[in-house]
Amino acid sequence: MSELPKLGVLMAEYDNALAYTDELWKDLTEDEVYWRPDQNSSAIGWHLGHQPVVAHFMVRNLTAAEPKLDPRFDEMMDSAKPEPERAPLPPLHLLDTFRADVARRVKFRVGNINRGHVGAPTQMRSIATVMMTSIINHEYQHSVWIGEVRTKQFGYDLPDLPESDLLSDLDGYPIIQLG
């Protein structure tokens, strides 16, 4: 079995993934972020809320029992929510703030684990390594879908993927493969 990435390296990759997603949407108009071809499709804005909802769900359920940051986001951005019910979405500034708040919580919790400031530090480090890999892969997965709308619907170029020795391509998705 190959060596797993260190948590510090994964935290840097998480920053890269978040920054890449930001490059995909921050120059779009509000109408473009909320655009849906039909009621059975999700807007870019939904993906922007879904990514951090999943990240925070994983952190608070796998590593630390902390409350939801905003239950309204959890309800709206759950992938079990039928697509026709994925609107109206919160204003862009709230999506952006929520993404930043979740990123801070992820970094805080994983930082504590990385420093050994938790019970069962070796076991938690193992859990956090797989969790962070999943969070990063999920961020990139949705960035591909955001990028598709960005290019195909609105004609914008895609920014270059971050340079990373951890990333490979699997079925057209940037991914960190473990093992």
Strand order of the largest sheet: 1-2
Q: Can you count the helices?
A: 6
Beta-strand content bin: under 5%
How many domains? The number is: 1
Integer average pLDDT? 95
Gyration radius, rounded: 16 Å
**Poorly predicted runs:** none
Judged by helices, strands and strand pairing, the structural class is: mainly alpha
Q: Regarding quaternary structure, how should these chains be classified?
A: single chain
Distance between the termini: 6 Å
What name does CATH use for the topology?
Four Helix Bundle (Hemerythrin (Met), subunit A)
By CATH, the superfamily comes out as dinb family like domain
Shape: globular
H and E string? HHHHHHEE
Q: Which CATH architecture is right? A: Up-down Bundle
**Percentage of helical residues?**
55-70%
What is the CATH domain class? Mainly Alpha
Task: Give a quick precis of the structure.
Helix content is 59%, strand content 4%.
How would you describe this structure to a colleague?
- The structure is a single chain.
- Helix 1 (7-25) packs parallel to helix 6 and helix 3 (44-62) runs antiparallel to helix 6 (121-153).
- The model has no long low-confidence stretch (mean pLDDT 95).
- This protein has one domain: Four Helix Bundle (Hemerythrin (Met), subunit A), CATH 1.20.120.450.
- The protein has 179 residues and is mostly helical.
- Strand 1 (167-170) and strand 2 (173-176) form a beta hairpin.
- The chain is 59% helix and 4% strand.
- A two-stranded antiparallel sheet has the order 1-2.
